[in-house]
Design goal:
elongated, mainly alpha, 6 helices
Length: 163
Amino acid sequence: MESANKRGVGQEHPRSVSIQISAAIIFFLIWILDSFIFMFSTILTQYIPFIVLLILFLSLLIIGLGLIFFTGHLLFHGESPSKLIKTGIFAHTRHPLFLGILIIYLGFIFLSVSLLSIIGFIIVFVLYFWITTFEENDLEVIFKEEYLEYKKKVPKWILFVKK
Protein backbone atom coordinates (compact mmCIF):
# COMPACT_ATOMS: atom_id res chain seq x y z
CA MET A 1 0.00 0.00 0.00
CA GLU A 2 2.84 2.34 0.73
CA SER A 3 4.23 2.09 -2.83
CA ALA A 4 0.78 2.83 -4.26
CA ASN A 5 0.44 5.90 -2.06
CA LYS A 6 3.91 7.21 -3.02
CA ARG A 7 2.63 7.61 -6.58
CA GLY A 8 -0.61 9.12 -5.28
CA VAL A 9 -4.18 7.93 -5.14
CA GLY A 10 -5.05 5.84 -8.17
CA GLN A 11 -2.20 7.11 -10.33
CA GLU A 12 -1.80 5.81 -13.85
CA HIS A 13 0.51 3.03 -14.95
CA PRO A 14 4.13 4.25 -14.66
CA ARG A 15 4.68 3.75 -18.41
CA SER A 16 1.17 4.75 -19.46
CA VAL A 17 2.24 7.62 -21.70
CA SER A 18 4.91 5.62 -23.54
CA ILE A 19 2.50 2.70 -23.96
CA GLN A 20 -0.21 4.99 -25.35
CA ILE A 21 2.23 6.70 -27.74
CA SER A 22 3.49 3.29 -28.91
CA ALA A 23 -0.10 2.13 -29.41
CA ALA A 24 -0.91 5.22 -31.48
CA ILE A 25 2.21 4.78 -33.62
CA ILE A 26 1.43 1.09 -34.26
CA PHE A 27 -2.21 1.77 -35.11
CA PHE A 28 -1.67 4.80 -37.34
CA LEU A 29 1.28 3.21 -39.12
CA ILE A 30 -0.90 0.24 -40.07
CA TRP A 31 -3.89 2.48 -40.85
CA ILE A 32 -1.96 4.94 -43.04
CA LEU A 33 0.00 2.25 -44.89
CA ASP A 34 -3.12 0.22 -45.64
CA SER A 35 -5.55 3.08 -46.23
CA PHE A 36 -3.46 5.31 -48.47
CA ILE A 37 -0.38 3.49 -49.75
CA PHE A 38 -0.79 -0.27 -50.20
CA MET A 39 -4.59 -0.55 -49.92
CA PHE A 40 -4.45 -4.28 -49.18
CA SER A 41 -7.71 -4.46 -47.28
CA THR A 42 -9.73 -1.40 -48.28
CA ILE A 43 -11.91 -3.22 -50.83
CA LEU A 44 -15.12 -2.31 -48.98
CA THR A 45 -14.63 1.39 -49.74
CA GLN A 46 -15.84 0.63 -53.28
CA TYR A 47 -19.22 -0.46 -51.94
CA ILE A 48 -19.84 2.07 -49.18
CA PRO A 49 -20.35 5.74 -50.10
CA PHE A 50 -17.71 8.02 -48.61
CA ILE A 51 -20.37 10.21 -46.99
CA VAL A 52 -21.56 7.20 -44.94
CA LEU A 53 -17.98 6.48 -43.85
CA LEU A 54 -17.45 10.15 -43.00
CA ILE A 55 -20.66 10.27 -40.94
CA LEU A 56 -19.63 7.10 -39.06
CA PHE A 57 -16.18 8.54 -38.41
CA LEU A 58 -17.48 11.92 -37.23
CA SER A 59 -20.12 10.26 -35.02
CA LEU A 60 -17.54 8.06 -33.32
CA LEU A 61 -15.13 11.00 -33.04
CA ILE A 62 -17.79 13.12 -31.31
CA ILE A 63 -18.77 10.26 -28.96
CA GLY A 64 -15.13 9.56 -28.10
CA LEU A 65 -14.28 13.22 -27.53
CA GLY A 66 -17.45 13.62 -25.45
CA LEU A 67 -16.41 10.74 -23.20
CA ILE A 68 -12.93 12.23 -22.85
CA PHE A 69 -14.34 15.68 -22.06
CA PHE A 70 -16.86 14.46 -19.46
CA THR A 71 -14.23 12.23 -17.84
CA GLY A 72 -11.76 15.10 -17.63
CA HIS A 73 -14.42 17.36 -16.16
CA LEU A 74 -15.23 14.83 -13.43
CA LEU A 75 -11.58 14.07 -12.69
CA PHE A 76 -10.30 17.62 -12.57
CA HIS A 77 -13.33 19.69 -11.55
CA GLY A 78 -15.42 17.18 -9.65
CA GLU A 79 -15.01 15.19 -6.50
CA SER A 80 -11.99 15.04 -4.24
CA PRO A 81 -9.09 13.09 -5.78
CA SER A 82 -8.81 11.04 -2.57
CA LYS A 83 -12.28 9.53 -3.08
CA LEU A 84 -13.40 6.86 -5.52
CA ILE A 85 -15.44 8.56 -8.23
CA LYS A 86 -18.59 6.57 -8.94
CA THR A 87 -20.82 9.30 -10.33
CA GLY A 88 -21.46 10.68 -13.79
CA ILE A 89 -19.97 8.65 -16.58
CA PHE A 90 -18.10 6.54 -13.98
CA ALA A 91 -21.46 5.10 -12.95
CA HIS A 92 -21.67 3.43 -16.38
CA THR A 93 -18.09 2.47 -17.25
CA ARG A 94 -14.95 2.18 -15.14
CA HIS A 95 -12.61 3.57 -17.81
CA PRO A 96 -14.48 6.24 -19.79
CA LEU A 97 -11.33 8.11 -20.80
CA PHE A 98 -9.75 5.06 -22.38
CA LEU A 99 -13.10 3.99 -23.83
CA GLY A 100 -13.34 7.38 -25.55
CA ILE A 101 -9.88 6.91 -27.02
CA LEU A 102 -10.73 3.40 -28.25
CA ILE A 103 -13.94 4.69 -29.87
CA ILE A 104 -11.90 7.30 -31.76
CA TYR A 105 -9.59 4.54 -33.03
CA LEU A 106 -12.68 2.68 -34.27
CA GLY A 107 -13.75 5.82 -36.07
CA PHE A 108 -10.53 5.81 -38.06
CA ILE A 109 -11.14 2.20 -39.07
CA PHE A 110 -14.58 3.19 -40.37
CA LEU A 111 -13.19 6.21 -42.20
CA SER A 112 -11.15 4.08 -44.59
CA VAL A 113 -12.64 0.62 -43.93
CA SER A 114 -9.11 -0.70 -43.54
CA LEU A 115 -9.56 -4.27 -42.38
CA LEU A 116 -5.85 -4.56 -41.54
CA SER A 117 -6.34 -1.70 -39.11
CA ILE A 118 -8.44 -4.06 -37.02
CA ILE A 119 -5.16 -5.82 -36.17
CA GLY A 120 -3.76 -2.49 -35.02
CA PHE A 121 -6.92 -1.86 -33.01
CA ILE A 122 -6.61 -5.25 -31.30
CA ILE A 123 -3.01 -4.41 -30.35
CA VAL A 124 -4.15 -1.02 -29.00
CA PHE A 125 -7.01 -2.64 -27.09
CA VAL A 126 -4.67 -5.20 -25.48
CA LEU A 127 -2.29 -2.43 -24.41
CA TYR A 128 -5.13 -0.36 -22.92
CA PHE A 129 -6.50 -3.48 -21.22
CA TRP A 130 -3.06 -3.99 -19.67
CA ILE A 131 -2.95 -0.38 -18.42
CA THR A 132 -6.46 -0.53 -16.98
CA THR A 133 -5.82 -3.85 -15.24
CA PHE A 134 -2.73 -2.35 -13.58
CA GLU A 135 -4.70 0.71 -12.49
CA GLU A 136 -7.58 -1.41 -11.18
CA ASN A 137 -5.18 -3.50 -9.09
CA ASP A 138 -3.85 -0.23 -7.67
CA LEU A 139 -7.37 0.99 -6.90
CA GLU A 140 -8.20 -2.31 -5.18
CA VAL A 141 -5.24 -1.79 -2.86
CA ILE A 142 -6.23 1.81 -2.12
CA PHE A 143 -10.02 1.54 -1.86
CA LYS A 144 -10.30 -2.16 -0.94
CA GLU A 145 -13.89 -3.38 -0.59
CA GLU A 146 -15.41 -0.16 -1.98
CA TYR A 147 -13.66 -0.70 -5.31
CA LEU A 148 -14.49 -4.41 -5.40
CA GLU A 149 -18.18 -3.54 -4.99
CA TYR A 150 -17.87 -0.87 -7.68
CA LYS A 151 -16.27 -3.44 -10.03
CA LYS A 152 -19.20 -5.78 -9.49
CA LYS A 153 -21.73 -3.10 -10.46
CA VAL A 154 -20.01 -1.20 -13.27
CA PRO A 155 -18.57 -2.76 -16.47
CA LYS A 156 -14.95 -2.16 -17.42
CA TRP A 157 -15.68 -0.88 -20.93
CA ILE A 158 -19.19 -1.11 -22.33
CA LEU A 159 -21.55 1.68 -21.35
CA PHE A 160 -24.93 0.93 -19.84
CA VAL A 161 -24.40 -2.85 -19.69
CA LYS A 162 -24.63 -3.78 -16.03
CA LYS A 163 -23.30 -7.05 -14.72
